[in-house]
Amino acid sequence: MPPALWLCLNLPTLALDALGPWPPGVSLPALVWQADAGGRTRTVLIANAAAQALGVQAGQRLGSAQALAPQALVLARDPAREAALLERLALGLGSLSPQRVIEPPDLLLDIHASLRLFGGLRPLLRRADRLVRAQAVQPRWSLASTPLAARLLAHAPPAQRQRRCVQLRSTRRRVLALPLALLGAWGLPCGATDTERRAADGPADAAGVAARRVAAAHIATLEMLHALGARCLADLQRLPRAGLRRRGAQDWVDALDRALGDQPDPRRCHEPPEAFALALELPWRADAVPAIEAAAAPLVQALCGWLALRWRAAQGLSLILRHDYSSRRSLPDQVLRLDLATPSREARHLQTLLREHLQHLVLAAPVDAITLQLDTSLPEAGRPTTLWPDAHQQAQAHTNLVDRLQARLGAAQVRRLLPQADARPEKADRWVNAGTADAKPLAPHAASRDALPALTHALPRPTWLLPAPLPLAEHDGQPLHQGRPLRILSRAERIETGWHDGALVRRDYHVALGQAGTLCWIYRERGNPAFDDSPAQPRWFLHGLFG
């Protein structure tokens, strides 16, 4: 089999995390309950640290838990929101590996092919930690050479939990020391039902949780193996294979071989959706910008992962705010539109733009749900690393600044000159909003004669043009500025155009030096007897100044 390194992220508090995100800085006692198969008995599935401090434990009757913590937030388990959280986490980690497998309550990633990209295992794990924290979850994680081994090690009791088993030899040694019940809980197909799932929330519960997860179809096999003296996976490996097959334990043997790498273990990888639109229900009413920003951060991270998987960059986003309908008024959703000057898939830049836009937003009512939607995107291939400073990063820094200024000041307040196909200086450019699609800024090093309109000029041109050309006095054929002669430094640049729209110009432009060292851009009119309005004596004009 080809080399592999699997990272397993186990979410022991998935049922509770899926009902968040919780208000920043607030720690309330909270518990999640679920009903049994008949729907008669309600028991506590998981409780947070604040509720546990009051005596609430997993497995208690809901009534007993409420008596211990009457102020606790009581929530019903929502499998749909658990699936949505795992989907969001899988998208958020899309930049680490394209091979991601969702197996609730776990997420598996094959990161072997990404080690060189991120500069080794430690930098990759640090990046993974940042991405996971952005989703407001705290998983248990483990590394192993096979996906099933990584999953077993992530669910192992604390005394046997090994985070890193990079080599296959160490993976086999650690797996063989694990309890037999772990294989029945996490390694067999249909090893547990949703009702039998429990959260391992303490050192003493890990082995018991695994035993409770074993489905009824495998309980008899587990008891049979215990009767044969098998307590760990090494004991199972030593038992005769033919006898185990006759006793109906072939699934256990196959699962052990997959965990040890003796059999292939193909997994169905997660596929990102064709279009990106993620919604998030808030368990509380957000009436302030910081709360909405904190709630939107996981969605932005998931968007960046989706863009990395699709090799695209965002150009237009929409943040849709759904208002709380508990009031008597029915208010339409508020839509916050983000348009980028240059497409990007950097989470930090997108979150900065979102923060700037939210600062100017006035909420019509408290918000109880948000949706982040990608409106427009463009293809963006990967960029090779170079020895010299990255020109793309320098250009990206400029466009990021334009985006931030537009978000803070307004799109109409940040403008730039857009070159036009006209040689007349007063018509060679026009002012446009810096973020418009046809006005993408070009960095000086990226601009070329092919990137600009056909009318490019080798001679220098000033950025500052006067609102109207200023007539200059003349003495013995030499132009005067502020009473002093100008010394012409350049040869004439002749511009003769405008016959097609009735605004004909016939000029010879020069760069001239003034007495104070000022560089001026001047021109001299060229008369033409064929035109009645042609001046009898050519005149000098000051048209611009160099910085």
UniProtKB/TrEMBL annotation:
InterPro entries referenced in this protein's UniProt entry, alphabetically: DNA/RNA_pol_sf, SulA_CellDiv_inhibitor, UmuC
Domain UmuC: 38-154
Keywords, alphabetical: DNA damage
Matches recorded under Pfam families: IMS (PF00817)
CDD domains: PolY_like
Keyword Oxidoreductase among UniProt keywords: no
One Gene Ontology biological process: DNA repair
Transmembrane portions of the chain: none
Alphabetical list of PANTHER family matching this protein: BLR3025 PROTEIN, BLR3025 PROTEIN-RELATED
UniProt-recorded name of the protein: UmuC domain-containing protein
